[in-house]
Amino acid sequence: MANVYEQASREMNANDLSLSVPRLSLQDISKSFGDVTVLHDVSMDVAAGEIHGLLGQNGAGKSTLMRVLAGGYPDYRGTVRLDGEVVAMTSPAAAQAQGIAIIYQEFSLVPHLTVAENILLGREPGRIAYSTRQVRAEAAGVLEKIGMAGELPLDETVRGLSTSTQQRIEIAKALSRDARVLVLDEPTSRLDGAERTKLFALMHRLAAGGTSLVFISHFLEEVLAVTSRLTVLRDGYAVARGKSEDYSLETLSQALLGQDLQRQEEAERKHTTTAAGECLLAARAIEVGRRVRGVSLELHAGEIVSLAGLMGSGRTTFVKSLIGAVKMTGGEVELRGRPVRLRNPTQALRAGVALVPEDRRAQGLVGALPARDNIVIMSLIRQPSRLGFVKTSGLRGLAKRAVEDLEVRPADDTRAASTFSGGNQQKLLIARAVLSGVDVMIVDQPTAGVDVGTKAQIHRILRGLADEGKAILVVSDEIDELLTMGDRILVMREGALAGEYARGRIDRATLIAELATRTADAA
Amino acid sequence: MGARVAKSEGGPRRRFDPWRFGIWIALVVVVVLLMAVSASFRSTSNLTNVLQQNSLIGIVACGMFVMMVSGGFDLSVGAVGALVSVAAAAISVDVSVPVAILAGLALGVFIGLLNGVLIAKGRINAFMTTFAMASVVTGVMFIATSASPVVGNVGFLQQVSLFGTFIGLPEVFFVYIAVVVVTWVLMRRTKWGHYVYSLGGNRDASFLSGVPVVSAQTLAFCFGGFMAAVGGLLLLGESGIGQPSSATDWPLTAIAICVIAGVSLQGGEGRVQDTVAAALLLGVVDNGLNLLNVSPYVQPTVTGTVILIAVAGDQISRRRSVSATRAGARKPLPASGSGLEVPTPDEQVASGAPVT
Asked: How far is A269 from chain B (nearest CA, A)?
C-alpha cells in the first residue's frame, strides 16, 4: 500500500510542474463534520480543456469534495482557484456565478416545461412579457453558441424524454450559463452503450472547446478511456493522481481499493460450483404478451443463476411475471414440483418467492421509515396475523441481527432507510427478503451504483445465502457480475432464452457478443 | 425565415390528442342530451340562467387555478368571499359603493398575501395554512357581525351580477370571460405566469435556475385572494346582503372544477380555458337534475359521480400520453432538485461515519 502512496505523490509533483495556470485548482481542501474529517488536504488541478477523472468508493470523499466545489459547504478549509484567482465557494449561487456547474445523477429540470423553456429558465428575455417564440429562438441561439445546435428537441416537453436527452439538456443549460468547469457526477450509470458513446463524444467536443470537465464514475474502463488525467480518493485522502495513460485497470483498482479487497474479489471468482439440490422453482414456457416468449428455467436449492439480457430483452418483465407483478399470458410455474398460480407479489411472497427489485429508491425501500421497519415488512406479510394484529417485538430483534450480519453501515436500524448509502440500502433490501424466510430470491441489479468494496460484500452475502440452500436468480447489466455470480448463466434476447452456459463455459467476450447480437439485429 | 426553418426541425409540440378536449366534448354531450330530453332546459332563459349562476364560482376557480398550478391550493376562498361580501355591504352603506369595492378587493389581496407568505416563504403546508386561515377569517367575521347578515346598498353590483344583460347574455358572464382571458394572458404571456408553471413543476430546479420562487408563489396566492374577493362582491350583488355563513362550498367546488379541468394537484400544469368547460359542466348537470325533478337528495351523488368519471378519464389520458412518450425513456426520472440543499444518502453516511 505504501508504494501506491509514494508513486502517487511522485506523480503529483511531476504534474504540478508541467501545468501552466490551471482552470481549476483545489489546494489542501479539508472538511470535517464534528470530529470526523472526511477530506484531508486534498489537492487537484484541472486544466482548461481537460477531462479529469475523479474516482473513489462511496464514502471516499468525492461527493464531499464536489459539494465543496458547488458551494454547499461554506466552512471548508483550503483554497479554490479559478484561472489563478482565489474564489470563495460560499453558496450554490456563488459557485454558479463563478462558472462551476454540477450535473447530478438526478436531474434538476422542470418536467412540464419544454426543452427550450428549461434551458432558459430564470433568464427569459424581456422584463414582464413572456413569449414562447422568443424563448425558443433564444434557446436555439444559445445551443448554436455552445456548439450543440439542432441537437435537442427544443419544443418537446421534458417529461417524456430519455435519460440521455435530459442529461444533454442539463449540460446545455449549464454551458449556456457560461460554465467554465463542468462536473459530471456518475453520468453514465443510467445510459446504455450507444448513449454512453454519444456522451463521451460530446464531452470531448466540449473539452476541445475549452471547457474543463470533471468526470466522476465507478466504471474504471470508462475513466481510463475518456480522461486525460485522474485523481483517486480513498478515505478522504488523494491517494493517486496522474496521467490516465499511466494507469491500467489493475493499478487503478489497487489505488481505489487497497490490496485486501482486491484479493477477496479474486477469491470470489474462483468459487467452485456447489452441487445443486432440489428444484425449488420451475418456470415453463412463460409468455407475457410479445415481450416474453416462452421462457423456461429451473432454480435449484444452493445455486445462483445469472440472467443476462440487454435493456428491452424482456428480462425484467420475465422476473416480474414470476412473482405475479406482471400478468403472464401463458406458461406455468411450479414450486417444489407443485404447480402454482401467483397472481400478485403478496401471493408469491407467501409461497416463498421474493423479488429484490432494481431501483432501490423507487421500487425498493420506504425511505422515510426506519431501516428496521423496512426490513420486517416482508416478514409481516408472511407471518400469520391475528385479526390483522401482528407481533413486532420478535421481528425487531431479528431485524437488528440482520443489520449486524449483513454489516450494514452505519449499524443503526432506527435510521431512516433513505439516509443509508446505496450499497447499504441494497443490503437492507436483501435483509428484508432473507428475514422473511423465502427460499427463492430474485435479485434485480443487486449492485447498480454500488462501490467496489460493498459490491464484493453483497456478492459474498448472496453466495452465503445460496450455500444455506436458497435458490437465487441474479439479473444484472454487469458482465463481470453475471460471470462471477452465476453457477449457470442464461442469456435472454428479444423476449426468449438464447442460451445457457455453465460456469466457466463462457468468457467475457463471448457473453458480450451473445448479448450484442440483438443490437446488431435491431440496427 | 431562419425561425421558420428552426421551427420545422423541432416538430409540433404535441400530436393531436382527442383526450385533450375531453372536458369540452363531455360538456357538449351533456348539453345535447339535456336539450333532447328537457324542453325547459333548452329554453333561452334557462340557458342564460346557467351562465349567470355559474360565472361566480368560475371566477373563484380562476384564482384557484393559478394557486394550484403553483403547487398549492386555497381552502380559505370561501371565508374570504363571505368576509368581503360582509365588509363591502357595511362600507357600501357607511361610505360608498366604489370604496366598498376597492376595500373588498384590497381585503382579498391582503389575506392572499398572508397565505402566500406563510406558504411560499414559511414553507408551511398549503392545506394547514389555508384551512387555519379560513377558520381565523370566519371567526373574526362572526365576532364583528354577531353572525347576523349585513344589508348592503349595492345597486351597481346587483346590476352586474344579477339583472344586467349584454347582447342577451348576463353581464356577469362577460366579467367571467374577461377574468379567464386575463388569467390566460398572465399565465401564458408574462414571465410571472411562466414562473408559476415552472415552480409548480419543480420548485428546487426553478430556484436553482434563478426563478424568484417565493415572490412568484406569493403573488399567485394574492391573485387567488383577489379572485375570491371578486366572487365575494358578486355574491353581495346577487343577494343584496353580506351573509357571514355563505360561500362555505366554494373551496372544494373550485378545486373540483380545476381537477376536472385536468389541473394537477401536484402543480405545474393545466389550462385555464378548460376550467370554463368544467365549471359549466358542473353547472349544467346541477341545472339539468333540477329541471328533471331529480330529488335534491340524489343530486350530490350524481355530481360526485361526474367528478369521479372526469378524473378517471383524465388519469387514463395521462397514462396514455406517458406510455406514448415512454419509448425513449428507460426509467422515469424522479423530478427532484439537484440536491444542493439536501445531502444525499452517500453524503450523510460520509458525514456520520465514513464507510469503506
From this structure: 21
User: Across chain B, where does the E strand assignment appear?
Assistant: 150-151, 165-166, 169-170, 241-242
Residues of A in contact with B336 (CB under 8 A): 106, 108
Q: Which three cell numbers stand for residue A328?
A: 403472464
| Ordered domains of chain A (ranges, CATH) | 1-99+180-187+202-261 (3.40.50.300), 107-178 (no CATH), 278-522 (3.40.50.300)
Do the Cβ atoms of B331 and A123 come within 8 Å? no
Q: Give all strands of the β-sheet with A330-335 in edge-to-edge order.
A: A292-300, A279-288, A330-335, A338-340
CB atoms within 10 A of CB B6: 20
DSSP structure string for A84-104: TEEE---SHHHHHHTTEEEE-
Report the amino acid identity of residue B9: E
Mean pLDDT of A339-358: 89
B86 contacts B246 by C-beta, under 8 angstroms: no
> Does the distance separating the beta carbons of A166 and B333 come in below 8 Å?
yes
What are the cell numbers at A40? Answer: 484531508
Q: Which residue of B has its CA nearest to A161?
A: B329
Q: Which of A109, A102, A105 is nearest to A152 (CA)?
A: A109
Q: Are strands A77-82 and A85-87 parallel, antiparallel or unpaired?
A: antiparallel
CA nearest neighbour of A300 among A278, A322, A275:
A278
A416 to A250, A362, A377, B345: CA distances (angstroms): 37, 15, 14, 10
Summarised one tens digit per residue, pLDDT across range A158-175 is 988 888 899 999 999 988
Q: Which of A66, A104, A113 to mutate to test binding with chain B, by most B CBs within 10 Å of its CB?
A: A113
Joined together, the cell numbers standing for residue A63 give 461527493
Model confidence over A410-467: pLDDT tens digits?
788 888 888 887 788 888 888 888 888 889 999 988 887 777 778 888 888 899 889 9
**Would the pLDDT of A148 be above 90?**
no
**pLDDT tens digits along B287-331:** 999 999 888 888 889 888 888 887 787 777 767 665 544 433 333
Task: Show the DSSP H helices in A314-392 as ranges.
Answer: 315-322, 345-351, 371-382
Give the closest of B321, B333, B352 to A163, CB-based.
Answer: B333
Per the omega criterion (within 30 degrees of 0), is the bond before A410 cis?
Answer: yes
CATH architecture of the domain with range B23-32+39-312: Orthogonal Bundle (1.10)
Using DSSP's 3-state secondary structure scheme, residue A149 falls into: coil
Cβ of A136 under 8 Å from any chain B Cβ? yes
Chain A residues with CB inside 8 Å of B194's CB? Answer: 117, 124, 130
Residue with cell 409540440: B13
Q: What is the mean pLDDT of residues A390-403?
A: 77
Nearest CA in chain A to B203: A110
**Residue of chain A nearest B3, judged by CA positions:** A137
Overall pTM surpassing 0.90 (yes/no): no
Please give the angle made by the CA atoms of B307, B310 and B312, to the nearest 5 degrees: 105
**What is the per-residue DSSP string for B205-270?**
HHHHTT--HHHHHHHHHHHHHHHHHHHHHHHHHHHSEE-TT--TTHHHHHHHHHHHTT--TTSS--
Domain coordinates in residue numbering, chain B: 23-32+39-312
Q: Are A113 and B197 in contact (CB under 8 A)?
A: yes
Query: Rg of the Cα trace of chain B?
Result: 23
Q: Which of A64, A117, A190 sits opposite B350 (nearest CB)?
A: A64
**CA distances to A192, A492, B327 from A312, in Å:** 11, 10, 11
Query: CA–CA distance from A477 to each of A3, A222, A492, A515 (Å)?
Result: 34, 15, 12, 10
Q: How far apart are CA B303 and CA B296, in angstroms?
A: 11
Residues in chain A: 523
